[in-house]
Amino acid sequence: MTNVVAIQLESDGQIKGWIEEIERALDRYSQIGDQSPELLTQAMRYSLLGGGKRLRPLLVLAACEMCGGSLADAIPAACAVEMVHAYSLVHDDLPGMDDDDMRRGKATCHVQFNHATAILVGDSLQSLAFELLAGELTANSNVTPVQAVKCIGLLAKAAGCQGMAGGQQDDLMANSLPATETTLLRIHRRKTGALLSVSLEIGGVIAGASQLQLEKLRDFGQNVGLAFQVTDDLLDATGDASTVGKRTRKDDTKGKLTYPAMFGIEESRRKAAELIQQAESCLQSFGAKASHLQDIARFVLERQQ
Amino acid sequence: MTNVVAIQLESDGQIKGWIEEIERALDRYSQIGDQSPELLTQAMRYSLLGGGKRLRPLLVLAACEMCGGSLADAIPAACAVEMVHAYSLVHDDLPGMDDDDMRRGKATCHVQFNHATAILVGDSLQSLAFELLAGELTANSNVTPVQAVKCIGLLAKAAGCQGMAGGQQDDLMANSLPATETTLLRIHRRKTGALLSVSLEIGGVIAGASQLQLEKLRDFGQNVGLAFQVTDDLLDATGDASTVGKRTRKDDTKGKLTYPAMFGIEESRRKAAELIQQAESCLQSFGAKASHLQDIARFVLERQQ
Where are the domains of chain B? Predict the structure, then answer.
């Protein structure tokens, strides 16, 4: 599957270069060697490489650059966030969860390998993310142990029961929650928002950003995160499976609580645009340095996958 | 279920106190508040509290004490290791893995709650372990960020594809591997040995142990880890489900590669005793300070659950 972000942001040669850099680093960090069972490494790499928008690592790099940090310093953390994202997709697709057989235009991990291996792929990718933050992040870099500990704490909280995993739990139980916008907001803040938002914060921490800057990054992230979820719901409701890279119309089939189901397609589009506008306004004080983050925000609004 | 370790080590009032301290800390650290979905928190606490030998956290504390560190400083790391252990049990019991319905004398997590929640419980406990190491471990303690980063890197590696998760993958595929002692050793070094061994190393790191001391701790841990697995296999082969707290004879039913299957009961017992002797010899240079670790090693040999 072609990387649509790369195409849409192709005019921005720098972001294209970042994506290539992220792909290379993910490839390098997932070459575990003979200390890991071969099939497990293979399944981890299958789930991590060759596909995906790389939105979260791009946010880490863009936030780090905007706050004056070194991109090379941010690469391990960018990859760690992507590993957590990749693990969550593998587990979300499991038979005991959403039971999906297609992801990023190819068979999901448990279909391609087997059920037990897919569980272990998710578990191992999460461990590898923290191994990276405790190892590569401070090796040959300007990142101090204090900054590394901060990044690890942020990622752990955003990934766990108060963040992404908690959001998935809410989502699975959404039918028993009141079908209101408040419920929808609560689910998405955790399920998608937490990891997107923390990507920006981690980029800021690595750059040594001030508290005020970190707050702006968090606000930007929350808005982009919600917009991302609205456009995700819209793609499920209106997109074509071959472009989106996964089964569509599944929300509707499951009677899932989504923005289009609650507000209709047009109103959802308007909401997404409004959220991106709000996100962009969080970056005003950064001036021209915010241009890459602005580009990424606009991509979230206009994306086709 | 009564905590048999506490009874067997009751003559050692200090270890009994440690177990109580660990239980209290696990209870405290798993009170997440309303930021986590209620059912998820409840299921995490169900899987983490009220049962378990607490062997790994005891090893963290005993190693830290032996190397002259402060026990209070080691409590968060002790709990983090136990959370990783607890998560691995929840995932090992899943229908897609060993499909067990009983653990520590009660229903396994996916039976008591549901399949999806059990997956998320494991995922969230792993995140929480790293959150603890990045937060509580350095808060109001003598542990520096450098030490915390070291502990995080060690735990992440021991938990992931090169350690515990890799060992579980090997174990699941053991039927396709040659039925030799080498295979058995490789599986157990990763599946059980890695986390037991790293518990000791983490205790040492927190105490500021020397490289030589850390090596001795690792060697001790590898031997105790293997002995633990041999006695685990022996309990499965000869123990009573109500004492052991989980279904027994399941290895035999599955035709699993185990020590008793390969060498017989008596020879396996001899091997376990020999491993514990080897373990104890690693502690010679620590003199009388090693007494708690010696007690724990002997418990591993004589345990009934």
Answer: 4-302
Q: In this complex, do B97 and A116 lie within 8 Å of one another by their Cβ atoms? A: yes
How distant, in Å, are the alpha carbons of A43, A54, A246, B66, B178 from that of A107? 12, 19, 9, 51, 30
Contact A160 B117 (CB under 8 A): no
Q: Which residues of chain B make contact with A156, given a CB cutoff of 8 A?
A: 127-128, 130-131, 134
The nearest CA of chain B is from the CA of A144 a distance in Å of 9
Torsion of CA B44, B48, B50, B53, to 10 degrees: 160
Is residue A294 within 8 Å of residue A286, measured between CB atoms? no
Closest chain B C-alpha to A284 CA, distance in angstroms:
30
Tens-digit pLDDT profile for residues B210-235: 999 999 999 999 999 999 999 999 99
State the pLDDT confidence band at A2, using cuts at 50, 70 and 90: very low
Q: pLDDT class for A177, splitting at 50, 70, 90?
A: confident
Structure-token match 């030998």, residue found: B53
In the CATH scheme, what architecture does the domain A4-302 have? Answer: Orthogonal Bundle (1.10)
- Distance, CA of A254 to CA of A288 (rounded, Å): 44
* pLDDT at residue B289 tops 70: yes
Q: How far apart are CA B234 and CA B221, in angstroms?
A: 20
The whole-model pTM stands at 0.94
Residue in chain A closest to B158 (alpha carbons) equals A127
User: CB neighbours of A126 closer than 8 A, spacing ≥ 6?
Assistant: A83, A84, A87, A159, B123, B126, B127
What region, left, alpha or beta, does residue A51 occupy, with left being phi > 0 and alpha being psi -120 to 50 degrees? left
d(CA A146, CA B148): 9
Q: How many CA atoms lie within 13 A of A239 on its CB side?
A: 21
Q: Which of A162, A187, A189 to mutate to test the interface with B (most CBs of B within 10 A)?
A: A162
Identity of the residue in B36, B152, B172 whose CB atom sits nearest the CB atom of A162: B36
Cα B199–Cα B162–Cα A141 angle in degrees, nearest 5: 85
Min Cα distance B299 → chain A (Å) is: 30
Residue with tokens 């609580």: A257
- Is the pLDDT assigned to residue B305 strictly greater than 70? no
